[in-house]
Specification:
Number of helices: 7
Strand content: 25-35%
Strand order of the largest sheet: 3-1-12-11-8-9
Largest sheet: 6 strands, antiparallel
Radius of gyration: 17 Å
Number of strands: 12
Helix content: 25-40%
Order of helices and strands: EEEEHHEEEEEHHEEHHHE
Bound molecules: calcium ion
């Protein structure tokens, strides 16, 4: 398989700092392996920015062919915990992490903690590959509210799993990719502003990888841009 990727991040219209982090920083093309990750930091002062950057750097380190995404994210977790030990004033900082290793055989190895998401766009249809680790998605899983109610629930941003906690549990999944697929990894700055239908429409319209990435950012900002928005798109070619 051959992969083409683009990443984009924007502070939005309300926040003063961008606490999201994304890798790779530079758009490119390769036959793999490629490590792609989005982290959305949280914490007082500049701590969110520190947490997302530290965790991301630790998680993407090492050989790109290493597909153990749970260990990668655990390394990110350890980096945040170590930083808090060194500087207790940053206690409470944490980050989401959604990370994919796109291997040479065409398998996406996913690891995921928090409410950043991975989507698969195949045959013009969008499918979620991750389940948000949020209070509202737990209610959905228990059948107490619908997925539509979850997107407008007042406590929809309450996260139940964070990188930077002791013993963080990482969700993992392997996805067999096909030529023509596009994978989107994004922070909640995108998905709070745009529902899945709006994201689908943009991906149908914007066939260029960087074009789609920046169109998604622009649409999130047009819809309010209340949070930092980060997207990574990877297109799969034969
Ligand atoms: Ca966010």
């Amino acid at each position: 398989m051959k992969y083409t990727w683009a990443t984009a991040t924007h502070v939005g219209h309300v926040r003063e700092q961008n606490e999201d982090a994304v890798a790779p920083e530079i758009d490119g093309t390769s036959s793999g392996p490629v490590v792609v990750a989005v982290a959305d930091g949280m914490g007082g002062a500049a701590a969110g920015e520190v947490a997302s950057r530290l965790a991301l750097e630790a998680a993407i380190a090492g050989p790109p062919a290493d597909t153990d995404t749970a260990r990668r994210i655990s390394d990110g977790n350890r980096a945040v915990l170590d930083a808090v030990l060194e500087d207790p004033s940053q206690a409470g900082m944490g980050t989401t992490m959604t990370l994919g290793v796109f291997d040479v055989a065409g398998t996406l190895h996913l690891g995921h903690v928090g409410d950043s998401r991975a989507y698969l766009f195949r045959n013009d249809e969008l499918r979620r590959l991750t389940t948000d680790h949020t209070y509202v998605m737990e209610l959905v899983a228990r059948g107490q509210i619908s997925i539509e109610d979850a997107s407008t629930h007042p406590r929809r941003n309450l996260i139940t799993r964070v990188v930077g906690m002791e013993d963080v549990a990482v969700d993992t999944d392997d996805v067999a990719l096909e030529p023509g697929d596009r994978v989107l990894i994004c922070s909640d700055g995108l998905t709070d502003m745009l529902d899945d239908e709006s994201i689908t429409e943009i991906l149908r319209r914007e066939t260029s990888v960087p074009g789609a990435a920046w169109a998604l950012i622009e649409a999130a900002n047009t819809a309010g841009g209340v949070d930092n928005t980060t997207v990574a798109i990877v297109a799969v070619h034969p």
